[in-house]
Design a protein that fits this description.
InterPro entries: CYTH-like_dom_sf, NadR/Ttd14_AAA_dom, P-loop_NTPase, TRPL-trafficking_regulator. With 369 residues, the protein is an alpha+beta fold. The chain is 32% helix and 29% strand. Helix 2 crosses helix 4 and helix 3 packs antiparallel against helix 4.
């Protein structure tokens, strides 16, 4: 029997514990029975392989800098293809691929619009460089909350010599992942040992298909002039529910400019819990999406919404503007544990917590509950 190959992108800021984390996770998940494959950090190979200080190159010759970034992007994509081909040899085993940074991280080092121009020139989309991974995990730099441990000594390709520079690069690298549907941030609120445990638990949550979410109803539209929302990434979504036995099943079209990605999702409630459910999600071709829509639940209307991804206090939030069949604003956050603490964004108008309230679920809205 063939098993799913799970791909997890592990990225982070300068001196965040990413390289150590990759090694620890490989050891832990191998012990758990997984065949673990590692995608190395291409940018470090390129820098140490002769290109040198990328920041200096950008100042000296922007054209050369852009072309090096283009090569880093393609070498990442080629590596992913090769790693997946190796993993497919072992499809009868549980396979996990951990990537030490990806093609997406290069965007953090470029001027606004430059990365998108490269994607367009190479006929690529955000799906090819970001959303193709089953999960994305971001480790926050030691310069944010663990300052005494920040160092340049353990990575010759690191050039952020001050805490301020490290924090700014951390913010940029973090934000390029906004828009991924399953993106988690691990900060330095605990010691490093517990940080690694949280990393292990986060990856495990992706592998176990357990989704824990809390949801809130807003009393008024948000103010997008707030700095946290000014950097939000907007993704239009069209969502239809299917006739299904014993589970909630849906198909989605998520739009990225002129390009769309299609998903099929099945959710099964976990008895005794309002916030936890099993979620099985897969990316499907457009043809399958059209075919599945033929068994659309006739009692459920199509849900149209805009989803805004943003970060507040190292938490990844999803802000949904439901356009039809009802007009409401909802806020969602994925958690590791049901009792995880949440720092609510004070710039939002919270009206009520709606976790577990069927009337405000997307399915409930589609059914007109």
């Amino acid at each position: 029997m063939e098993n799913k190959i799970h791909e997890i992108a592990l990225t982070g800021g300068p001196c965040s514990g990413k390289t150590t984390g990759i090694k620890k996770m490989q050891k832990k998940f191998t012990k758990d029975g997984y065949k673990v494959f590692i995608g190395r950090e291409i940018a470090t190979d390129v820098i140490l392989g002769g290109v040198g200080d990328m920041a200096e190159l950008a100042k000296k010759d922007m054209k050369q800098f852009i072309e090096v970034q283009r090569r880093i992007l393609w070498e990442n994509l080629d590596q992913r293809k090769n790693v997946l081909e190796r993993a497919k040899i072992f499809r009868n085993e549980k396979c996990l691929v951990l990537y030490d940074s990806t093609a997406m991280d290069g965007k953090a080092y470029m001027l606004p619009g430059a990365y998108e121009r490269i994607l367009k020139q190479e006929r690529l989309t955000y799906f090819d460089v970001r959303d193709c991974f089953h999960g994305g995990v971001y480790l926050v730099t030691a310069a944010e909350g663990a300052e005494k441990f920040y160092t340049l000594k353990n990575n010759k390709a690191r050039y952020e010599s001050t805490l301020k520079a490290a924090r700014e690069m951390d913010r940029k690298r973090r934000n390029v992942w906004l828009g991924h549907p399953h993106f988690r941030i691990i900060d330095n609120s605990t010691g490093f040992k517990k940080k690694m445990k949280r990393l292990y638990n986060t990856i495990n949550s992706f592998l176990g298909n357990i989704e824990i979410e809390r949801r809130f109803l807003l009393g008024s539209p948000p103010d997008f002039s707030h700095p946290a929302l000014a950097e939000a990434v907007k993704i239009p979504i069209v969502q239809d529910y299917l006739l299904s036995d014993g589970a909630t099943e849906r198909v989605q079209e998520r739009r990225y400019g002129s390009f769309s990605v299609y998903y099929r999702t099945k959710k099964i409630k976990i008895a005794g819990s309002e916030s936890a459910q099993q979620e099985f999600e897969e990316i499907i071709p457009e043809e399958e999406y059209r075919r599945l829509k033929e068994r659309k639940d006739p009692k459920a209307r199509t849900v149209f919404k805009n989803r805004y991804h943003f970060i507040y206090k190292f938490q990844h939030f999803e802000l949904d503007q439901i356009l039809s069949p009802r007009r409401i604003w909802k806020l969602e956050i994925e958690l590791l544990k049901e009792d995880d603490k949440i720092s609510r964004p004070p710039f939002l108008d919270f009206k009520d917590e709606i976790t577990g309230k069927a009337k405000y679920s997307n399915y409930g809205i589609a059914r007109g509950l």
